[in-house]
């Protein structure tokens, strides 16, 4: 917690430099068919109160029965966070009143969570990486949803989400900037998606963050923190931290003090504001839920789940670097989504790994981003892209023609090899034909030929002219060699 | 351990139970009597006794991850004082 302070990460106030300290509680919705303690569906949306059992509606006499898959998902997540798995954990009642909480309490885990301390390795945009400590992960129920905009005097309550399993993942206050916080959430989301334990869909609220922010002058003890509730996008997490840190710095530099409180980030106004109503609710009077026995399993159960885990992003990245000779940066880009990594591996199999990475990252991802498409909906399959790379490797087409070919495959589809054949896109390797073009250009530009002897960089101009004359189909290596010989350049 | 008047009012409020001024005194007496009973239990020597979580030793029952319930919104809202399109309607609560 008292790692050396990086001056670049400090925030400049009016009087001093300040260090921002961030810790996060991430609520990740468990991927499961049924809810944590009932057999109602977890499916997003649905008609109002349609995915609700009498347990979720807290009808008298209903008893919770735990969903075994939700337990397995929490253990898998714990393993993915290199965390201690607790073979015995306890469900507690967290008591508070709100219209979308029909029980009057949330079933959660307080003193004895299912997962203890772990860590997440986070890569930062500047290439550095940090280790963020995980304090705990516990299972709990989600609340229902209230709609406030349907009627001037009434709120509408839908319990479809009520009782859906959440994993609350609590980090240590190890983050020192909004950049680090955003990178942490991004990485955590990637791990969850690899594990298949949470879909990470922030638009649907599958991943939400409570962000704890405090500031201090470097070297001083931790300042008083404020908790910003329910931030639901990675961009907003960054903005909320920046906004809140500056608010606190302004108060402290004016000689004021920070009140520990819960705040809400308003992205449209770009400010955080106090949620005073939440203050007294902090007395949750936790006690063990008498409806539920302790959750117990043995090490063999944990080991079996560990066996079934997929290769995780850190391991995959290391493998891409060593097996395909990629830079850590490129490998990091490729493993950010499991589907991207799978796609890349299909393209790279039996081919040059670096060439495959360049095509996937620069051409394919570039084009997907431009069109706002995800890798799952790419019009160019791994086989098609692989064939394009093969055609370059075999010297059938030049790199420039390959880009045109990529464009054709993108818009029209089809077998790249057949397209090259039928549209006459083959590279001209016949030196006779290239030589004719070169001779023509040399004859037409005697002044440039004379200059080229003094200024060898003019070679580029001749290469360009030759490529133009051959419709881009001349083999660039052959053109270069011929021109050098004819112009007398070494 | 005993509770004072302020604590009685606080826990009543947290439980959303309306307690009048006249009731606070008697309630305080009743609660303190209950706490005194519990304190008696504290005198029992439980050294070496495992905390009991269930009358008979048993593992918690678990359910399979299968959707078995739902599709009865009308029943779910049947007892509500006010509903619309199977939503519960409550006095407006907004931050």
TrEMBL record, chain A:
First-level EC class: ligase
MF-aspect GO terms: asparaginyl-tRNA synthase (glutamine-hydrolyzing) activity; glutaminyl-tRNA synthase (glutamine-hydrolyzing) activity
Keywords annotated in UniProt: ATP-binding, Ligase, Nucleotide-binding, Protein biosynthesis
Claim: Lyase is one of the keywords in the record: no
Gene3D superfamilies: 1.10.10.410, GatB domain, N-terminal subdomain (1.10.150.380)
Catalytic activity: L-glutamyl-tRNA(Gln) + L-glutamine + ATP + H2O = L-glutaminyl-tRNA(Gln) + L-glutamate + ADP + phosphate + H(+); L-aspartyl-tRNA(Asn) + L-glutamine + ATP + H2O = L-asparaginyl-tRNA(Asn) + L-glutamate + ADP + phosphate + 2 H(+)
Tagged with keyword ATP-binding: yes
EC number(s) given by UniProt: 6.3.5.-
Domain Asn/Gln amidotransferase: 342-487
Quaternary structure and partners: Heterotrimer of A, B and C subunits.
Family label: Belongs to the GatB/GatE family. GatB subfamily.
Function, as annotated: Allows the formation of correctly charged Asn-tRNA(Asn) or Gln-tRNA(Gln) through the transamidation of misacylated Asp-tRNA(Asn) or Glu-tRNA(Gln) in organisms which lack either or both of asparaginyl-tRNA or glutaminyl-tRNA synthetases. The reaction takes place in the presence of glutamine and ATP through an activated phospho-Asp-tRNA(Asn) or phospho-Glu-tRNA(Gln).
Record-given protein name: Aspartyl/glutamyl-tRNA(Asn/Gln) amidotransferase subunit B
Organism of derivation: Methylobacterium fujisawaense
UniProtKB/TrEMBL annotation, chain B:
Stored SUPFAM superfamilies: Glu-tRNAGln amidotransferase C subunit (SSF141000)
GO molecular function term, any single one: asparaginyl-tRNA synthase (glutamine-hydrolyzing) activity
Enzyme class, spelled out: ligase
Classification via HAMAP family: GatC
EC number: 6.3.5.-
Family that this chain belongs to: Belongs to the GatC family.
Subunit structure as annotated in this protein's UniProt entry: Heterotrimer of A, B and C subunits.
Protein's job: Allows the formation of correctly charged Asn-tRNA(Asn) or Gln-tRNA(Gln) through the transamidation of misacylated Asp-tRNA(Asn) or Glu-tRNA(Gln) in organisms which lack either or both of asparaginyl-tRNA or glutaminyl-tRNA synthetases. The reaction takes place in the presence of glutamine and ATP through an activated phospho-Asp-tRNA(Asn) or phospho-Glu-tRNA(Gln).
Transmembrane portions of the chain: none
Keyword terms: ATP-binding, Ligase, Nucleotide-binding, Protein biosynthesis
InterPro entries per the UniProt record, alphabetical: Asp/Glu-ADT_sf_sub_c, GatC
Protein name, entry field: Aspartyl/glutamyl-tRNA(Asn/Gln) amidotransferase subunit C
A Pfam family matched in the record: GatC
Lineage top rank: taxon: Bacteria
């Amino acid at each position: 917690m008292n790692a050396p302070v990086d001056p670049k990460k400090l925030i400049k106030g009016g009087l001093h430099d300040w260090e921002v300290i961030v810790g996060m509680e991430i609520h990740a919705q468990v991927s499961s068919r049924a809810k944590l303690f009932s057999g109602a569906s977890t499916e997003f949306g649905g008609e109002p109160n349609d995915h609700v059992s009498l347990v979720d509606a807290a009808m008298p006499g209903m008893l919770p029965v735990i969903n075994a898959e939700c337990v397995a998902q929490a253990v898998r997540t714990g393993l993915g966070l290199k965390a201690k798995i607790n073979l015995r954990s306890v469900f507690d009642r967290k008591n508070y009143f709100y219209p979308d909480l029909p029980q009057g309490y949330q079933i959660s885990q307080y003193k004895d969570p299912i997962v203890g301390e772990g860590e997440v390795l986070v890569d930062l945009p500047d290439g550095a990486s940090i280790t963020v400590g995980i304090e705990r992960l516990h299972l709990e129920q989600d609340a229902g949803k209230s709609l406030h905009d349907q009627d001037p005097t009434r709120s509408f309550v839908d319990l479809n989400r009520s009782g859906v399993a959440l994993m609350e993942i609590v980090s240590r206050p190890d983050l020192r900037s909004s950049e680090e916080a955003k990178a942490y959430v991004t990485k955590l989301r990637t791990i969850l998606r690899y594990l298949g334990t949470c879909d990470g869909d922030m638009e649907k609220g599958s991943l939400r963050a409570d962000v704890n922010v405090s500031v201090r002058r470097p070297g001083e003890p931790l300042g008083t923190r404020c908790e910003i509730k329910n931030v639901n996008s990675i961009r907003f997490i960054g903005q909320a931290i920046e906004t809140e840190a500056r608010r606190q710095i302004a108060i402290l530099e004016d000689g004021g003090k920070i009140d520990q409180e819960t705040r809400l980030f308003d992205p449209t106004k770009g400010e955080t504001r106090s949620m005073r109503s939440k203050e007294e609710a902090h007395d949750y009077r936790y006690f063990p839920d008498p409806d539920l026995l302790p959750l117990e399993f043995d090490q063999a159960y944990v080991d079996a789940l560990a066996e079934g885990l997929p290769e995780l992003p850190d391991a995959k990245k290391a493998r891409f670097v060593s097996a395909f000779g990629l830079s850590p940066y490129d490998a990091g880009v490729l493993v950010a989504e499991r589907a991207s990594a799978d796609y890349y591996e299909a393209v790279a199999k039996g081919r040059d790994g670096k060439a495959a990475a360049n095509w996937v990252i620069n051409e394919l991802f570039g084009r997907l981003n431009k069109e706002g498409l995800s890798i799952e909906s790419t019009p160019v399959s791994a086989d098609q892209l692989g064939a394009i790379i093969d055609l370059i490797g075999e010297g059938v087409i030049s790199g420039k023609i390959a880009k045109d070919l990529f464009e054709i495959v993108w818009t029209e589809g089809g077998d790249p090899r057949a397209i090259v054949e039928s549209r006459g896109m083959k590279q001209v390797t016949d030196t006779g034909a290239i030589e004719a073009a070169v001779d023509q250009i040399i004859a037409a530009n005697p002044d440039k030929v004379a200059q080229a002897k003094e200024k060898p960089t003019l070679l580029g101009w001749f290469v360009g002219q030759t490529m133009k004359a051959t419709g881009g189909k001349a083999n660039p290596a052959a053109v270069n060699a011929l021109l050098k010989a004819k112009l007398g350049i070494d | 351990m005993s509770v004072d008047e302020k604590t009685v009012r606080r826990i009543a409020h947290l439980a959303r139970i309306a307690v009048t001024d006249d009731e606070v005194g008697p309630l305080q007496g009743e609660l303190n009597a209950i706490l005194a009973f519990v304190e008696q239990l504290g005198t029992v020597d439980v050294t070496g006794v495992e905390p009991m979580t269930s009358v008979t030793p048993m593992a918690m029952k678990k359910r399979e991850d299968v959707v078995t319930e739902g599709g009865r919104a009308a029943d779910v809202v049947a007892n509500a004082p006010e509903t619309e399109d199977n939503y519960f309607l409550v006095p407006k609560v907004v931050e």
